[in-house]
Write a structure and sequence with these properties.
The chain has about 290 residues and is α/β, with parallel strands linked by helices. It has two domains: about 120 residues, ATPase, nucleotide binding domain (Nucleotidyltransferase, domain 5, 2-Layer Sandwich), CATH 3.30.420; about 150 residues, Nucleotidyltransferase, domain 5 (2-Layer Sandwich), CATH 3.30.420.40. Helices cover about 35% and strands about 20% of the residues. The strands form two sheets. The chain has a five-stranded mixed sheet, with helices on both faces. It has a five-stranded mixed sheet with strand order 8-7-6-9-10, with helices on both faces. β7 and β8 form a beta hairpin. The longest helix has 21 residues. The radius of gyration is 19 Å and the shape is globular. The protein starts with a strand and ends with a helix. About 45% of the residues are buried. Bound molecules: zinc ion.
Length: about 290
């Protein structure tokens, strides 16, 4: 039987909704602004119905934090978020009821980690970590073919950071922790300090070295805890010219030759480009069968 899979990339500013199949094809897609759950989710369901319905599965790669405990009464709900209107929103339930088929849901970054490990920059590796550095920072990981979950999903964007000596006066931008990784390296923290995105700062601006240094400290923490074969660094900030190479160089310096693996080979760019979100949803849904 042909699989017809509903795909939802649920982001903080937009939902990308699509229709895919088991051959990794995406047949149609649309964009819906993220406003309130009672508007955005029904709009996504209406669009999916207009594509003919008949879905065999639904895959959702969502912003979080999410309740992913299958035994929980609030499985598939967003939990505590700083995003207005979305705390406690049920994301998975409305799709399950609308289409009467299995629903897979995980974080957007776990979805991207799974898609990149299955088809992209982590293909063939025994483990792959995916970190997005954009309006926020988040990470997911596949180890031995399984996505990492514990009590909940990882929150790699919120690890605590040592402070760069030339950045000591900045309090950080995370509403929960101040100067965690997200609070120091996400796009809004860059604009808060220097008034422009990293890619718009001149090449010699110290911001380039400071952000690379923080991301290198994070890479070392990931290496120390997980020893991933690939660390795939994506997101809008990572598209800054030269940043990936700076992160590799600072990671090599700070690692002092201790860790297995050359950062120039372990730290890589994503391979799936702008489809990574929907392909993440697809990879999650294909795990249902
Ligand atoms: Zn934080």
């Amino acid at each position: 039987m042909d699989e017809k899979i509903a795909l939802i990339e649920a982001g903080g500013t937009k939902f990308i909704v699509g229709v895919g199949d088991a051959s990794r094809r995406i047949h149609a897609r649309t964009r819906i602004d993220t406003t309130r759950p009672e508007e955005t989710i029904p709009a996504a369901i209406d669009w999916l119905r207009a594509q003919g319905g008949g879905y065999t599965a639904v895959g959702i790669a969502s912003f979080g934090p999410l309740d992913l405990d299958p035994a929980s009464a609030t499985w598939g709900h967003i939990t505590r978020t700083a995003k207005p209107h979305w705390s406690d929103a049920d994301v998975a339930g409305p799709f399950a009821r609308a289409f009467d088929c299995p629903v897979a849901i995980d974080t957007d970054v776990n979805g991207a980690a799974l898609a990149e490990w299955t088809w992209g920059a982590g293909e063939g590796a025994n483990s792959a970590l995916y970190l997005t550095v954009g309006t926020g920072v988040g990470g997911g990981a596949v180890v031995g073919g399984r996505l990492i979950h514990g009590l909940s999903h990882p929150e790699m964007g919120h690890i605590r950071m040592p402070r760069h000596p030339d950045d000591a006066g900045f309090d950080g931008h995370c509403p929960f922790h101040g100067d965690c990784l997200e609070g120091l390296a996400a796009g809004p923290s860059i604009i808060a300090r220097w008034g422009a995105s990293l890619s718009d700062l001149p090449g010699g601006h110290p911001g380039h070295e400071i952000i690379a240094w923080y991301l290198a400290q994070a890479a070392l923490s990931f290496q120390a805890i997980l020893s991933p074969s690939r660390m795939i660094f994506g997101g809008g900030v990572m598209e800054t010219q030269g940043l990936l190479d700076r992160v590799r160089a600072r990671t090599a310096e700070a690692g002092a030759g201790y860790f297995v693996g050359d950062p120039a080979e372990v730290i890589v760019a994503p391979a799936l480009g702008h489809d990574a979100g929907l392909l993440g949803a697809l990879a999650l849904a294909l795990r249902l069968s």
